[in-house]
Amino acid sequence: MNDAQVNYIVTENELFAIVFAMEKFQPYLMDTKVIVHTEHVVLKYLMRKKHCKERLIWWVLLLKEFDLEIQDRKGSENQLADHLSQLEEEGTSHDGLEINDSFPDEQLLAISMTGMPWFVDLANYLMSGIVPDEFSSNQTKKLKRDCLDYY
Questions:
Q1: Same domain as 81, residue 18
Q2: How far apart, in whole angstroms, are the C-alpha atoms of residue 36 and residue 50?
Q3: Residue pLDDT, tens place only, 78-133
Q4: 3-state DSSP call for residue 67?
Q5: How many domains does the chain have?
């Protein structure tokens, strides 16, 4: 682990271990259901959370490539794993083991937006009832007519 990885909190370390293992064994795990038993129920929540650290979002996106199921296991049922996780082997260094956070061809399907999406005015009108000032009467009628499909 590098200096930054040493400072990860327990949940991040656990997620890092899963990502590292999934990446290491990727050829064997693709198209296979993988069940991860963990005592950190928070990992299930992280897989669904939309707003968190960028590093965690990258890891979750990487894990979405797999058919992954995270099952909670109480610490009392998982004593061997607890014991093994607390052992430290003397003289071993994990400095060279860094997770590969890059996605191959990540820019391949990148979308560049020059303007606002088509639905911005529609969403703003549905939420606030305010029509943009620059709209003509015909545009206002069309906006209200389009809103009928969503409201």
A1: yes
A2: 21
A3: 666 666 666 666 555 556 667 777 766 666 656 666 677 778 888 888 888 889 99
A4: strand
A5: 2
